[in-house]
Specification:
The complex is a heterodimer.
Chain A: H1 11-21, E1 28-32, H2 36-42, H3 47-67, E2 72-79, H4 87-106, H5 108-114, E3 116-121, H6 129-141, E4 148-156, H7 158-174, H8 185-191, E5 202-205, E6 224-227, H9 237-284, H10 292-334
Parallel strand pairs in A: 1-2, 1-5, 2-4, 3-4, 5-6
Chain B: H1 2-31, H2 37-53, H3 80-90, E1 97-102, H4 109-122, E2 126-131, H5 135-138, H6 140-155, E3 164-166, E4 195-199, E5 217-221, H7 229-240
Parallel strand pairs in B: 1-2, 1-4, 2-3, 4-5
The chains are: A alpha/beta, B alpha/beta.
Keywords (chain B): Endoplasmic reticulum, Magnesium, Membrane, Signal, Transferase, Transmembrane, Transmembrane helix
Enzyme class (chain B): transferase
Protein name (chain B): ditrans,polycis-polyprenyl diphosphate synthase [(2E,6E)-farnesyldiphosphate specific]
């Protein structure tokens, strides 16, 4: 079954989509696709078939998002915690993933036509090597597409992602690329796996559970959360519309909260920069008190240097991550 | 054409607001035992119609504002303290750490204080109170006074002191200017909140403890104003029915 389901919306769906699009639309929607196993149980299917139906539903949802002009979607496909399931189920999920990523490579032209960029977020080292290689090929093949973005969280937990970001920052400080005083909330965000994406505007969890289960905890702090009781394989266009409507009802208050948070972060950064500048002036000064003009100049100079340091560090980090995928691809071709 | 869709969208939003107002009005009328029988009959007929229009989110609590169900007002029977304790023990599971996330603009100290006191009485060890504008953080002494007052009012004054943490939206400024905000990990060994009760219309965590809410259950209550003990107990009952598989 293909990643991209072709086809237009029917007349009623199209009208509803147009009505919704008259209001503010989320630019990035995240899905916790929960309920595949319960669906399988209710319909007397094998669990594996439930997961396959779940994938089909994903393809359909991506088609709806395309028609609703939602350019970015992130999905929680497999958690690090899911390794605790039976070996049979885990193997089944790995096989499904293998199948789908290999299928993705076959559909390369179609993906190029639609401009779909696929990213996979998670601790990929935990996966079987051949799956890692298939993922690397898919990610590199679609790297430069920029019309729509699909982020698949595989072998992912938010806590692992946050811990990893901190580890990268420690590496940066160790390498002398950044100082420990450069670490900020913004910089941590830049070190997450999702650093190429804006934060999700809307997070949808299906199957009625009302928790986040270690998914995008950092990124969804100011997202609209919608919990729906429908099981993922039964998700419909109308469920998606309902969630978007929820987003639209919350839009103003969440925007206000986001703005407040942004302003607060900016003022914290400025304060930190001032303190560091004052320390430097004291350290390099000759004991004489400095005037406001000198302090202001020193502050601007410090900010420029800090931003340059941070940019160099982020470039090095990107290079490190790209190299990981390149090496996997080379291994795959030489194998 | 674009204008038409714009108008239709505004109409849709208006319909949703009207529907929500109607549903909450009907729920109050249905549950108020003072209303006459025919009113209740009409309300029960109209409620399914209203609900069919726009499905509500699951795990939303049906509020009973003004319901006089506080154990301390019960005449006769076991003492209020025992009643709270037995309510707590009757639940399949009780959170060790509960969070109250207030998304409403102007929080009410009395109502939050009541919630804190009831939680202590029922046997919850840690209670976090959070709002997006740092109101509780900036006025924590006022909240503490209110908690003490309500404790005397509801329980007769003999409670053990509890650790009420005030979580700020921003940072606590240290002398060396290090930022804390989202980056703060608790300096005490407090367990992660198992349950967060969110009050108000905003469907977002608004920055509440992102690291700690990995497995937290969220229960939505429309408002914290005039929140009753029954509302809190309802939320705790809903929580006790949640089952976690933790990946399995």
């Amino acid at each position: 079954m293909s990643w991209i389901k072709e086809g237009e919306l029917n007349i009623i769906e199209r009208i509803s989509a147009n009505v919704l699009k008259a209001g503010p639309m989320p630019k990035h929607v995240a899905f916790i696709m929960d309920g595949n196993r319960r669906f399988a149980h209710i319909n007397n299917m094998e669990r594996q078939d439930g997961h396959t139906q779940g994938f089909n539903k994903l393809a359909e949802t991506l088609r709806w998002c395309k028609h609703l002009n939602i350019p970015e979607v992130t999905v929680y496909a497999f958690s690090i915690e899911n390794f605790k399931r039976t070996q049979e189920e885990v193997d089944g999920l790995m096989d499904l993933a293998r199948q789908k990523f290999e299928r993705l490579l076959e559909e390369r032209e179609n993906l190029e036509k639609h401009g779909v960029c696929i990213r996979v977020l998670g601790d990929l080292n935990l996966l079987p090597l051949d799956l890692q290689q298939a993922i690397a090929k898919a990610v590199l093949a679609t790297k430069n597409h920029n019309k729509c973005f699909l982020n698949v969280c595989f072998a992912y937990t938010s806590r692992y992602e946050m811990t990893n970001a901190v580890r990268e920052l420690a590496w940066g400080v160790e390498q002398g690329l950044i100082r420990s005083s450069d670490v900020s909330e913004t910089l941590i965000t830049e070190c997450l796996y999702s650093n190429k994406s804006p934060n999700p505007d809307l997070l949808i969890r299906t199957s009625g559970e009302v928790r986040l289960s270690d998914f995008l905890l950092w990124q969804t702090s100011h997202s609209c959360l919608v919990f729906q009781s429908v099981l993922w394989p039964e998700y419909s266009f109308w469920n998606l519309c309902e969630a978007i409507l929820q987003y639209q009802l919350n839009h103003k208050s969440i925007q206000k909260a986001r703005e407040l948070h942004r302003e607060h972060q900016a003022s914290l950064q400025l304060e930190a920069d001032r303190l560091c500048t004052a320390e430097e002036l004291q350290h390099h000064g000759n004991g004489k008190p400095t005037d406001a003009h000198t302090r202001q100049e020193a502050l601007l100079h410090y900010i420029t240097c800090r931003e340059e340091r941070v940019q160099n560090f982020l470039t090095a980090l990107k290079h490190k991550r790209d190299l990981f995928f390149h090496d996997l691809c080379i291994e795959a071709t030489t194998a | 054409m674009v204008m038409l869709y714009g108008l239709l969208w505004r109409l849709l939003l208006l319909l949703v607001h009207v529907n929500r107002a109607l549903v909450s009005w009907l729920r109050v009328r249905l549950q108020s035992w003072k209303s006459r029988l025919w009113e209740r009959a009409m309300a029960s007929l109209l409620l399914p119609l209203a609900l069919a229009g726009f499905p509500e989110q699951q795990k939303k609590l049906n509020r009973t504002p003004g319901a006089d169900d506080n154990p301390s007002h019960a005449n006769g029977g076991p003492s209020p303290r025992l009643r709270y304790i037995s309510d707590g023990m009757s639940l399949q599971k009780l959170p060790v750490h509960i969070g109250f996330l207030v998304t409403e603009e102007e929080p009410s100290y009395t109502d939050i204080a009541n919630l804190v006191v009831w939680c202590m009485a029922v046997g919850i060890s840690y209670i976090s109170v959070y709002d997006n504008h740092d109101i509780f953080q900036k006025n924590h002494s006022r909240l503490l006074k209110e908690i003490e007052r309500q404790q005397r009012h509801l329980m007769g004054g003999d409670g053990h002191p509890y650790n009420v943490e005030f979580l700020s939206n921003g940072s606590d400024k240290c002398h060396n200017g290090k930022k804390k905000s989202k980056v703060t990990i608790f300096k005490f060994t407090i367990p992660d909140p198992e349950l967060v009760v969110k009050f108000g219309p905003v469907d977002s965590t608004l920055g509440f403890l992102p690291w700690h809410i990995r497995l937290t259950e969220f229960i939505f209550v429309p408002s914290h104003r005039d929140v009753s003990y029954k509302d809190l107990l309802g939320a705790l009952k809903l929580y006790s029915s949640c089952q976690q598989r933790v990946g399995q």
